[in-house]
Amino acid sequence: MSADYEGSTKSNPVQITEDEAAVYDRQIRLWGLEAQQKMRNATILIVRLRGTATETIKNIVLAGIGKLIIVDTDDVSEEDLGTGFFFRDDDVGKKKVNAAKTRIESLNPLVTVQAISHDVFHDRELLDALVMSVDLVCVTDWHREGLICINEVCRCVGKPFYAGGTFGLLGYIFCDLLKHDYISPDRSAPSDAPRNLKASTVYSPLHMALRHRWTALTRKQTKELNPAVLHGILAVWEYQHAHGKLPEKLEEAPQLLSIANSLLEASGVNKQVLDTMPRELMEILSTGASHEFSPPCAVVGGMLAQDILKALAAREAPVANFFVFDGTSGSGTVCRMNM
Question: Which of 238 and 18 is assigned the larger pLDDT?
Answer without folding.
Answer: 238
